[in-house]
Model the fold of this input.
Amino acid sequence: ETLQLDVRDSDSVAAARTRVTEGRVDVLVCNAGRGLLGPLEAHSADTVASVLDVNVVGLVRTLQAFLPDMKRRGSGRVLVTGSVGGLMGLPFNDVYCASKFAIEGLCESLAILLPPFGVHLSIIECGPVHTAFLEKLEGGP
Done:
């Protein structure tokens, strides 16, 4: 069964956690992401905060909800969608790259800490692929 949730909403994350029917989550896929394109000075503080809320804080909310049970059980797999934008800066993607760099640091730290608990985390550093993501980018020239 696949559960969907809104990473911006702690209640949505908690509700998804309570809907787990087997009593456990074996694989957690963290794929929420928001893009923002354009020069840094063109973005409002609210827009920047929204991108960081989805890309970074939303990931943290989700991990905080599901990792404790995986650690208690001694098993689980976490897959996080990162980006090459977390490995190198990309022009006019300042905020997006900042959020993906944060995810890199978070995931690298957790990847070291989780294996003794039987939990394995992988970050998938996607490059340019043909998806609807580019059509949903906010901002622009």
Observations:
- The radius of gyration is 16 Å.
